[in-house]
Amino acid sequence: MEMSSIPDARPLVDQILGAALSRMASDIHVEPAADGCEIRFRIDGLLETQQRLDSAVGRAVVTRMMVMARLLTYRLDVPQEGRLALPRGAASGEAATEEVEGSAEARLSVMPTIHGLRAAVRMPAEYMQPAVLHDLGLPPRVLKGLLDFAGADAGMLILTGPAGSGKTTTIYALLTHIVRTNGALSIVTLEDPVERDLRGITQIEVSPFGQLTYEKAMRSILRQDPQVLMIGEIRDAATASLAVQAALSGHRLITTLHAATPGGAVARLLEMGIEPYQLTSSIYGVVSQRLARKRNPQKNLEKSGYCGRIPFAELVIMDAALKKAVLERSDADGLKRIYAKQPAYQSLAESGEEMVGAGLTDDAELRRVLGAGEQKTQ
Predict the structure, then answer these.
(1) Which long-range contacts (CB under 8 A, 24 or more apart) does 210-219 make?
(2) pLDDT, position 89
(3) Cα end-to-end span (Å), the chain
(4) Distance (Å, whole) CA 84 – CA 99
(5) Maximum distance among all alpha carbons in the chain?
(6) How do 36-43 and 46-53 pair as beta strands?
(7) Domains along the sequence of the chain with CATH
């Protein structure tokens, strides 16, 4: 194709970004196929097709996004990642060609496929997610536990849940609360990637497959006198050991762990080789969180009657009975039988059912998020 025949995608890209912002989409997908290209938005956790484009126009859209993110447009054979500033007028859906200095950034990832480059844009979280802990809509017991942790001197708080369950939003809101209530603390985060720029916090972007891994960053940052640490995710035994040691040595530490339940999170740390006595002395508590689409009372449920999402969650505190079970190396089910007896404990399913009773969501959405099996066993 000659350069003169390549369509000018700048107005279209600005329109796509503006539409994503106005619809509070968390992600934009530009997906090439044999017969064209689809633009899809992730709204309230689900993907929706917005428009279909000619293949040439789709390629021009991806190329324009790559230019905005300063990626190598001539490299069509390798994945690339970058950040693009939202252009002037994008928030209102107006066409624009000039970028705003200091504007919010979206994260762009491109991947080669058999039909061309596929692009995924992660929209700026600050446009659609609450930044204040009290505004998240968390269950009262979970909110109180987070506030208590924010005022503690040490200990490790673990958040669990699948991708897209709001863990990072909760952590950012908690860190922001700690900054606002005690700005004299030294707070450092290790993230892959950094999702949002947080005022008053030192944020470090690590690369699990690069030079600055979680383990290397942890070993160095502990020598820089932090008081509150956030590790984006514990993925291996070495990082788990360093995190536990940090919590044992007087740091407040917040992290995520891939596990379905609080008991599963503790059991996984045991499987990583962490000694039971270290876990009982370091863990403050475990939060398991999910997001459900929120009912929109202005719309009929049969016609996509949802607007936004709301978290439901359970909190388990490392109390004396649970410590005893951990020291005995109980499995996830055994740990659950113990912490289910904690005062005012509310399971994940019970938290969701309470939201259904309050009219915030419905049974169908709860089943979609939890699954029938998980809902019954909670």
Answers:
(1) 214/190, 214/239, 215/239, 215/242, 217/190, 218/190, 218/242, 218/243, 218/246
(2) 54
(3) 58
(4) 9
(5) 73
(6) antiparallel
(7) 3-125 (3.30.450.90), 129-377 (3.40.50.300)
Amino acid present at 62: V
For residue 242, give every residue at least 6 positions away whose Cβ sits within 8 Å of its Cβ, in sequence order, or none. Answer: 215, 218, 219, 222
β-pair partners for 56: none
CA–CA separation, 300 vs 316, rounded Å?
A: 37
- pLDDT (tens digit, 9 = 90+) per residue, 75-112? 999 999 999 988 655 544 443 333 334 467 899 999 99
The identity of residue 365, as a single letter, is E
- Residue 137 · residue 153 · CB < 8 Å: no
DSSP-assigned states of every residue in 158-185: EEE--TTSSHHHHHHHHHHHHHHH-TTS
> What mean pLDDT value characterizes the chain?
90
Q: What does the CA dihedral 215, 191, 27, 105 come to, rounded to 10 degrees?
A: -140
pTM: 0.86
SS (H, E, C) 194-257: CCCCCCCCEEEECCCCCCCCHHHHHHHHHHHCCCEEEEEEECCHHHHHHHHHHHHCCCEEEEEE
**pLDDT tens by residue, 184-214:** 999 999 999 888 889 999 999 998 777 888 8
Here the tokens at position 183 are 């700005």
How does DSSP classify residue 38? E
- Of 266, 375, 256, whose CA–CA distance to 327 is shortest? 266
Nearest Cα to Cα of residue 225 among 185, 256, 197, 194: 185
